[in-house]
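Page 37, continued from 36.
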């Protein structure tokens, strides 16, 4: 169906009878997806969010008969209280939402403006969350109702992992399963080694270092962790993180050993990717590296793992071990270079869909 087949003014097909339902002009949709956020910090909001997150088999792949009793009876009885307290430390009280939601809105507002400047009303830009609201299903259904006959789905994760990119894609495909007239669909691949993304990271480091009185002894690139077993099962995440650190160091023109790669957010008793950031920064302090900086290249937006974990638990571990100066370099968020890099990815992936 083309826009030319719709009568201007009333949205009805030119050849259709008078009682035919109105038809929206055909559009292309770009849907950005992030991890998610609780709606509030109270017990029940946190429990709903954590239940959805921790029930995802891509996140916790323990058989349900083992995992669900533990999750429902023990973990979800206690963890919503501690998680809610952590979220309250960083909550955007003015907007009554998490920083991840605030930043995602800001990112998408700029991405939408860039898309409008490039393609006018032909492209509709939206965002969804894998867990919590707005849900992937609700946004996909709305975009289809708005006339999106083609949708480009963009998980906002520079690196591929089953527990991030893959589960976001799962939710998108499940949403399509419920739609009678499915749109054509494309999924954006990871972009961890894209020069524009690496350059945006490097610029953020350069800006941060320019404002410091003394150059840090080392830059720690802290990535979200995952079980070591996932690496041996074929997940490319670990290798992609290592490559990002190397490319960032090369772009900055730094010597080998000036950027360390570590992993945070360990959960459960299983061995995860090492070194663990919380232990690594303490070891650096004990080795005499009293001035460090930390960056989180795997996160497209600052969130609980960066604003609370890095600036809380990880910072405290460093100081307790004798560290003196700790600089956290924010995520790329809605920085102009980041938005440009994301739009570069979008433009490439819309090739053939736009005239």
């Amino acid at each position: 169906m083309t826009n030319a087949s719709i009568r201007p003014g009333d949205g009805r097909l030119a050849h259709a009878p008078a009682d035919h339902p109105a038809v929206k002009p055909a559009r292309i949709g770009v849907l950005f997806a992030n991890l998610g956020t609780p709606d509030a910090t109270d017990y029940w909001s946190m429990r709903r969010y954590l239940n959805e997150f921790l029930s995802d088999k891509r996140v916790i792949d323990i058989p349900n008969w083992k995992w669900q009793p533990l999750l429902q009876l023990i973990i979800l009885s206690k963890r919503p209280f501690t998680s809610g307290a952590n979220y309250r430390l960083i909550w955007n009280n003015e907007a009554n939402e998490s920083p991840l939601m605030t930043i995602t809105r800001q990112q998408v507002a700029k991405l939408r403006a860039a898309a409008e400047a490039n393609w006018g009303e032909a492209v509709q830009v939206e965002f969804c969350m894998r867990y919590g609201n707005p849900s992937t299903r609700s946004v996909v259904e709305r975009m289809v109702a708005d006339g999106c006959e083609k949708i480009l789905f963009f998980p906002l994760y520079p690196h591929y992992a089953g527990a991030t990119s893959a589960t976001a894609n799962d939710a998108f495909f499940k949403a399509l399963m419920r739609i009678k007239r499915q749109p054509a669909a494309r999924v954006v691949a990871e972009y961890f080694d894209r020069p524009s993304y690496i350059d945006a990271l490097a610029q953020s480091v350069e800006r941060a270092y320019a404002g410091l009185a003394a150059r840090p002894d080392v830059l720690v690139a802290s990535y979200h962790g995952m079980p070591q077993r996932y690496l041996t099962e074929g997940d490319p995440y670990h290798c992609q993180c290592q490559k990002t650190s190397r490319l960032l160091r090369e772009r900055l023109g730094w010597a080998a050993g000036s950027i360390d790669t570590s992993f945070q957010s360990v959960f459960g008793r299983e061995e995860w990717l090492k070194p663990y950031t919380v232990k690594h920064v303490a070891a650096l302090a004990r080795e005499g590296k009293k001035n460090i900086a930390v960056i989180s290249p795997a996160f497209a937006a600052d969130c609980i793992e960066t604003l609370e974990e890095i600036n809380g638990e990880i910072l405290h571990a460093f100081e307790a071990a004798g560290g003196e100066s700790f600089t956290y370099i924010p995520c790329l968020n809605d920085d102009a270079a980041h938005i440009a890099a994301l739009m570069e990815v979008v433009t490439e992936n819309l090739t053939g869909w736009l005239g």
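Confidence is low (pLDDT under 50) at residues 1-10. Flag for discussion at group meeting. Strands lie at 27-37, 123-132, 148-155, 184-187, 218-224, 259-264, 291-295, 325-329.
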